[in-house]
Amino acid sequence: MTKIGVLALQGAVREHIKALQESGAEAVGVKRIDELNDLDGLVIPGGESTAMRRLIDKYEFLEPLKAFAKEKPVFGTCAGLILMAKTIQGQDTAHLELIDMTVERNAFGRQKDSFEAELQIKGVGEDVNGVFIRAPYIVNVGKDVEVLSVHNDRIVAARQGHFLCAAFHPELTDDYRLHQFFVQMVNETKKVIA
Amino acid sequence: MLKTGTDRVKRGMAEMQKGGVIMDVINAEQAKIAEASGAVAVMALERVPADIRAAGGVARMADPTIVEEVLNAVSIPVMAKARIGHIVEARVLESMGVDYLDESEVLTPADEVFHLNKRDFTVPFVCGARDLGEASRRIGEGASMIRTKGEPGTGNIVEAVRHMRMIQGQIRKVSAMSEDELMTEAKNLGAPYEILLQIKKDGRLPVVNFAAGGVATPADAALMMELGADGVFVGSGIFKSANPEKFARAIVEATTHYRDYELIAELSKGLGTAMKGIDISTLLPGDRMQDRGW
């Protein structure tokens, strides 16, 4: 069975585990580096990106995560998307630098501006409920990045090879289509590696 | 169609804070220390609970200057406290762009009968609770997050433990009940029936439940996680300790890795003096903040 980890340093871990299980994968929380070993893919959940980064640094998780991502699929939502971006607007440094894109943090405003909206996501669905919470968005993408969803002229979901990211929180709804899409990506990569 | 202020958006904001530590701060400098230490949010206050306790008198919403200063200092969410039932303090803080409001017993209540109708607001609310009835009433009024009341500003974990054990035990009891026993339980707890029914089905509160009120050390934070808290508020415990930055970092790590006891031992070494604590039995009835609200 396909086994997918959810980085469990902080944030909405439980919801991702449930969504992955509902999508037909085995799912576990990952708190230590050695727990990455037998995984086929990884989800980086929503949470606070600054808090997650401090815990990543503290336990020297950054390099093992980058090494993991060389072969295995990674899916980041909200804070996870920020951690995956090559460039963060207004900051000199980024985090895992997996996807060739520039993102802006808290780009839709403060919590009172957080919203739900119906999204069209390429390959996933025409009516996906997007939950945006103090969300970032993707300002621009490199040539190898495929834009999957745009909301009010802003890029909110994208894919580059075996990396997937979303500015919103599919794990907060009962609609598991985006997780199914990721599990499919993981299964395909698994076949190639095997 | 774009919808703001929905239950999903308000509760979801708290879901993103899980496994994290929310720290009380009184200025931009402390807020920056908290953010750099890995706090998931800060609570902007004029005084930390220990100082509110010492100062006596009426404790009100913080000076908006302080809230504004903190809002501008950090990129993590900023929370602020309004008095129980004080509609205008809550509206003022909401208008300033505060990300989360705490209708808090740490401040002197403005209304001894009615809590805020939190469903009216776009901004989400966290409220304190000592038992499942109180938690359910607050959720019924629209709270998007619950925290134990504990006994704020004492540096004594005993009340937070009491409240967390009480709530978790009552959830287990309700989960095991047959549905025909539930209305009587709702009556006994003073809990809205529909919310109790949902708790029975899910085996947990429909919102995130943090620990608060007395967390002073990394081991205290880990204890509350062990007892089932989704995360931890630390009020006076950090900036009333000898070395705030070190305490803040240690409490964050102990909250994430709450079952890694060797790590907690390492984190706890040479931390310096924790805040001076207060034995609950020495508090006069009027000084017990947890008895405020119903």
Automatic annotation (TrEMBL), chain A:
Gene3D superfamilies: 3.40.50.880. Pfam families: SNO (PF01174). CDD domains: GATase1_PB (cd01749). It catalyses: L-glutamine + H2O = L-glutamate + NH4(+); aldehydo-D-ribose 5-phosphate + D-glyceraldehyde 3-phosphate + L-glutamine = pyridoxal 5'-phosphate + L-glutamate + phosphate + 3 H2O + H(+). It comes from the Bacteria. InterPro entries: Class_I_gatase-like, PdxT/SNO, PdxT/SNO_CS. The active site is at C78, H169, E171. Its EC number is 4.3.3.6, 3.5.1.2. Pathway: Cofactor biosynthesis; pyridoxal 5'-phosphate biosynthesis. Keywords: Glutamine amidotransferase, Hydrolase, Lyase, Pyridoxal phosphate. One of its GO terms (cellular component) is cytosol. GO terms for biological process: L-glutamine catabolic process; pyridoxal phosphate biosynthetic process; pyridoxine metabolic process. GO terms for molecular function: glutaminase activity; pyridoxal 5'-phosphate synthase (glutamine hydrolysing) activity. L-glutamine binds at G47, E48, S49, R105, I133, R134. NCBIfam families: PLP_synth_Pdx2 (TIGR03800). Belongs to the glutaminase PdxT/SNO family. Catalyzes the hydrolysis of glutamine to glutamate and ammonia as part of the biosynthesis of pyridoxal 5'-phosphate. The resulting ammonia molecule is channeled to the active site of PdxS. PANTHER family: PYRIDOXAL 5'-PHOSPHATE SYNTHASE SUBUNIT SNO (PTHR31559), PYRIDOXAL 5'-PHOSPHATE SYNTHASE SUBUNIT SNO1-RELATED (PTHR31559:SF0). In the presence of PdxS, forms a dodecamer of heterodimers. Only shows activity in the heterodimer. This is Pyridoxal 5'-phosphate synthase subunit PdxT. It comes from Fictibacillus solisalsi. The gene is pdxT.
Automatic annotation (TrEMBL), chain B:
D-glyceraldehyde 3-phosphate binds at R165. It is an enzyme of class 4 (lyase). SUPFAM superfamilies: Ribulose-phoshate binding barrel (SSF51366). Pathway: Cofactor biosynthesis; pyridoxal 5'-phosphate biosynthesis. InterPro entries: Aldolase_TIM (IPR013785), PdxS/SNZ (IPR001852), PdxS/SNZ_N (IPR033755), RibuloseP-bd_barrel (IPR011060). It catalyses: aldehydo-D-ribose 5-phosphate + D-glyceraldehyde 3-phosphate + L-glutamine = pyridoxal 5'-phosphate + L-glutamate + phosphate + 3 H2O + H(+). It comes from Fictibacillus solisalsi. Homohexamer and homododecamer. In the presence of PdxT, forms a dodecamer of heterodimers. Residues 7-212 form the PdxS/SNZ N-terminal domain. The keyword Lyase applies. Its EC number is 4.3.3.6. GO terms for biological process: amino acid metabolic process; pyridoxal phosphate biosynthetic process; pyridoxine biosynthetic process. Keywords: Lyase, Pyridoxal phosphate, Schiff base. The active site is at K81 (schiff-base intermediate with d-ribose 5-phosphate). Belongs to the PdxS/SNZ family. This is Pyridoxal 5'-phosphate synthase subunit PdxS. One of its GO terms (molecular function) is pyridoxal 5'-phosphate synthase (glutamine hydrolysing) activity. Catalyzes the formation of pyridoxal 5'-phosphate from ribose 5-phosphate (RBP), glyceraldehyde 3-phosphate (G3P) and ammonia. The ammonia is provided by the PdxT subunit. Can also use ribulose 5-phosphate and dihydroxyacetone phosphate as substrates, resulting from enzyme-catalyzed isomerization of RBP and G3P, respectively.
